[in-house]
Every structure is written in structure tokens, then in C-alpha cells.
């Protein structure tokens, strides 16, 4: 009695728990096992599949293919049980036409066009789905909550209601979220903290490549990515996407260099291109596509100061192939060689890759996962690799000549033998 009085006095009145606490070893884990979605690339990112009661937020720019991906998932998941797809963006007829086009018509896939959360809950009671998809959370509203749909208060209340529904009924739930111009998820930041998994769906509108990466994952890794190809007939997983990031040519071209980047745990072969051209403009142009503009400016400055390649009065354009975005420092060396090749009008030898971070002193620094990168280069037929010195013996691959360099000048002399003369 004194114990209960003490609890009430502290400001928290005790109530009878709905479910008694049990020893952790007696908790049934079968119901919490992940169920594969049928899309191997998505399962790779999720860590096995969808977890009953888990809430996933899928974010991406408009038109990137979020709805197409989820229709594919819904159709495959419907083979295991009922799936409810709630659309607030389009009419049910529009979604049905897209599902027919991509081959996502399934007998147990149910479709509803709603914008109010109580109506969504009513459909859940009728369908009893194993998977609930809400497209999108910014179009839903709670009549009792203040504000307009998409506002901070409404998005928070809608998300809280859907999460509560998912946890109480053990329904795997996917919420679609828009992103703002700077790439962040629209709505309150608390939305990302409420859900269990946050996935970012990325891709250039002018490219068919789409990359799915985990920003947060309570049930699996956050360093995996999934690669997809968006076509007129749907979306297809790409277990080996490296070939999409290379240009097929018969002769070497000045201003290009191949590197190996690591996205998550996956090594990807990618090509960096550069064009250094004379200009009559008083302010030379600097344009980048798929690369970090700050790192491009830094590499240009290092080339000017440390190896005396004067490009300050020239227009400089840099890009990647296939719409892939390369932001990790290991791309620096390939970028430097591409810039130097375009400036001197010299092409790299065929079959060469370059991997390494460039420091402000002109030094070439060791990068992570070098053995894995070299294995990928050898697998795809490359014969020579320029890498930072100081790596262990494990980086040497049979059939691949590995040349270790300490600074940018040595790397340039290795890549362009003409500079030695």
C-alpha cells in the first residue's frame, strides 16, 4: 500500500498492465522474424525482409519510382497473404493502370483511395492485411488534429496513429515520404525517429539506375545498398550493376579514368570524366555532375600547386557515367588523373584503374576496403591498378598489376609514361 502511494505521490499513478512481464528467454521470436519481400535487392538492404509490426519510411524525390517499387513489392507479398495499398496521391483507377502496366495485379492485393486516417483504419479492419502501404504520409490527415495535411502536426499525428496500428496488429507497414529540394525528408524530423526503418530511394530522372540505401534500420545493416533498373515495364533488381557506370569504347580517350568505389558493402566500378578547355571568359566555368564540387575544387588546387598543372584559366567540367554519385574520398586519385589527362591531352592505358584519396600536400592516402576493390577490378578484367603505398600484402591480386604510389606526382608519372621524359 505504501509502495502504491509512493508511486502516486511521484506523479505516476500505477495501472494494471495489459500484458504481464515475462522472462526474456520465454518470449516467442517466431512472430518477429523477417519475411522476404521477393525482391532480392530490397531484402539485402532490409537485412532479410519485412518484419511484422515494423514501420518503414521510404523517402525519395517525386518521379523517382517509389510507387512502382512498392507495387512490385505489394504484388509479390500478396502471394503470402492480403496486402492493402492506400493511395492519397492518385485515384484508385490510376494506380490500377500502373499496376497493370508493370504486371503487379494480384488477387490478394487490395487498393483504397483515402486521405483520412480513420478511413484507413476501417479498411485495415476489413482486409486484415499482412502488409500495409500508405502513399503518402503527407497526404493523410487526422480530422481531430489541427493544421493542414502535410503540416508538422498532421504528419506527426498520422505517423503516430499508423505506427500504433502496426504494432497492435503486427502489420508490416510502409509509409511513403516526399523529400525537399535539399534531399531531406519533408515534414517533422521526429518522423524519422518514430519509424523503425528509413530508406532513401535515389536516382537521376534521366537515368534508369535507382539506388536504395538504408539511413536507419533497427532490424538490419545500414551500410548496404540495393540497385534497381527502372523500365517502362516495371523495376528490376541489379545484382551486378558495375557495367552501367562504364563507357564502352574501342580506343582510350583523354580525360577519363576508372575507379572502384564502395557503396555500403558493395564495390562498384565507376568512370570519372573530365574536360579541361580553354576559355575567353574572364571567369572560367566550373561544372560538376555526380561528384562533390568541393572535392573537385580541392583536387584542382592540388594539381596546380603540387604538380604545376595550370588549369586556373580554363573551363573545367567533371562528371560520372550512368548517373551514379561518387562522394567518397577514394575517387580523388581517379579525378586527378582524368583532369591531368584532359589538360595534357593524354589517355590512360587500357585496363587501368586508380584508387586513392589525395591530400592537400599532394600525398596519396590509403582508403578502406582496398582488397575488396581490387578483387572487383580483377573480376571485370582490369589489368593495372594505381593504389596508395602502405597497404598490406593482401591487396595484391593474381592477374592484376598493383602499382603503389606515395604522391600525386608519382601517380601521374605512372599513369602517363610520357611525363617521365
Automatic annotation (TrEMBL):
A motif (RadA KNRFG motif) lies at residues 216-220. One of its GO terms (cellular component) is cytosol. Pfam families: AAA_25. Residues 31-179 form the RecA family profile domain. Residues 315-421 are annotated as: Lon-protease-like. The middle region has homology to RecA with ATPase motifs including the RadA KNRFG motif, while the C-terminus is homologous to Lon protease. This is DNA repair protein RadA. It comes from Thermobifida fusca TM51.
